[in-house]
Structure prediction request, 283 residues.
Amino acid sequence: MKLPFVFAKRFVAGETFESTVPKIKALNKKGIKVTLDLLGENVKKKTTADDTVKEYIRLLNDIHEAGLKSTISIKLTMLGLDIDSEYCRDNLYLLLDEAKRLDSFVRIDMEGSDYTQQTIDIYKEAFKQYGKHVGIVIQAYLHRSKEDIADIAELGADVRLCKGAYGEPERVALQNMPAIREAFKEYTKVLLEKTTFPRIATHDDELIEWVKEYTEEKKIGQARYEFQMLYGLREETMEQLTKDGYNTRVYVPYGTMWFPYFKRRLMERKENIFFVLSTMFKK
Prediction:
């Protein structure tokens, strides 16, 4: 039995681009930019991956024609990474050709740790060719991220730093929040020093306040970085950060393949489960 979309609408803007547009426009009107994320992962058939590339290219054009302040985020497994890495890279380059033509931007999302090295390798190749039109995500809780951040920051890459959203074992990732926060702070310092415009993706008040205090202390202007949050979370905080002069961006997921994403949001905080249950029947 398919779970009805009503369960997911707290965290997922819609099942179609058309149903998502009003929400993007509402955020843009408040001065908040958007990254649009067509949900899905782990495509196993080339026909599906080919269709996905066409959908992403259409999405870039739809955003451009609608005049939205939005870029897009993609997962490499949606482009066929599980099928063949060279095939996936070729698909990514088709998409980036269009992003470059439209002077837009594609964020390569980070998936589970089994894909980290492949994702970074493909990104670094793409960055050489497409530069400012492509970025990557690094997850602070992975043990390997210290080396990855140092390596990628030296390139001057466009990096979105987040804590990490996948259940990973202790041998792969930090497990306690104080340690994750310390890693996040360390990597933020590196990105602020080595890159031109890091994207700080967190809903954590402690980290938000630390970034504000650290950048003020180091005389790093608000124009040098961006706060990012997920659709449906901390909306008032995001609006206040925008009013206070910070660059802000909301990740807006949409699409019919929303269940894995929805499940990860529920697993992150028990409060999310209570919210969904309490608002499920409200209009």
